[in-house]
Specification:
The protein is an alpha/beta fold. The protein folds into two domains: 2-163, NAD(P)-binding Rossmann-like Domain (Rossmann fold), CATH 3.40.50; 175-283, N-(1-d-carboxylethyl)-l-norvaline Dehydrogenase, domain 2 (Orthogonal Bundle). The chain is built from eleven helices and eight strands. An eight-stranded mixed sheet has the order 3-2-1-4-5-6-7-8, sandwiched between helices. Helix 5 (143-152) links the parallel strand 7 and strand 8 (157-159). Bound molecules: NADP nicotinamide-adenine-dinucleotide phosphate. Residues 6-12, 31-33, 36, 65-68, 70, 73-74, 90-93, 114-115, 117-119 line the site of NADP nicotinamide-adenine-dinucleotide phosphate.
Amino acid sequence: MKIGFVGAGKAGSTLGKYMVEHQACVSGYYSRSRASAIEAAEFTHTSYFETLEEVLEESDALFLTVPDGAIENVWKSLQQYPLTGKLICHCSGAMNSAVFSGISQMGAFGYSIHPLFAIHSRLQSYREFSQAYITMEGSMEYLEFWKKFFSDMGNPVRIIDSGQKVLYHGAAVAASNLVVGLFETAARMLMRCGFDRESGEKALLPLFLNNCRNIADSGVEGALTGPAERADEQTIRRHLAVLSEEEKEIYLPLTKAAAEIAQRKHPDRDYKELFALIIEMQEKGWV
Ligand SMILES: NC(=O)c1ccc[n+]([C@@H]2O[C@H](COP(=O)([O-])OP(=O)(O)OC[C@H]3O[C@@H](n4cnc5c(N)ncnc54)[C@H](OP(=O)(O)O)[C@@H]3O)[C@@H](O)[C@H]2O)c1
């Protein structure tokens, strides 16, 4: 199976390099700019192509590693060429394979294959890519092939329901980008206490990093500490008295989730007062 890439950015370069390192057959790259395609081809020791038609001709499977907004247009451009037997994949988290409308009538097979991974660097991310959890959905014909392809390279793989992709991607954003937003919220609260940004971020970092490690080692129940776990409704009430309206809107639903984890962790402990406080605040419209 010869695999070609349309889009020589972070995902395309990383996937291609990773595949080559695992002895997969990568034909090479076509991209919007010739320079990107050449750079990715040199990086992966593969070829670059001047046209979409050439990369298609030289590949059995194509990964459209272009921005989500460009996938449909690249698909439309591909449809002017013979596609019988070709496997067409994209890597979007939120979109499913239905974007390849009419693909089965053209005798081709469509897939969304999404790495649950922050690919931050075109040239470095491939080194850590074996940690990436891969989810996929699409035509039945080659789904098991793709599953085995990535499993054999050492990645955990899961086939997911195409109707759940948006929710699935929401979960990925919550565990990734929104954690950055939460860290920023905490840093701003420390800045209101007189910290400058740099010292505030530095002060919060051990809390943040140890929590991530504790979740990895012991799961959310093992990692949870703090007033919600202790059912310390008084402290939470005092926090709410000093938080801004916007901070309360962040703090309360997360405290509710923490209290639910705490209740699972300590089924014998009494969290009634804490949940009553949360309901009281919900009724005030804060959750
Ligand atoms: N980065 C991540 O963390 C990550 C993780 C999982 C999934 N993904 C998915 O991977 C896909 C690509 O994301 P990315 O982060 O790799 O983006 P990126 O770094 O911006 O790369 C996109 C590449 O596509 C090229 N391109 C844009 N429009 C094109 C077109 N019409 N025809 C051909 N090439 C075109 C770009 O052009 P140039 O030729 O000008 O360079 C660029 O090289 C997206 O679907 C994204 O959701 C990304």
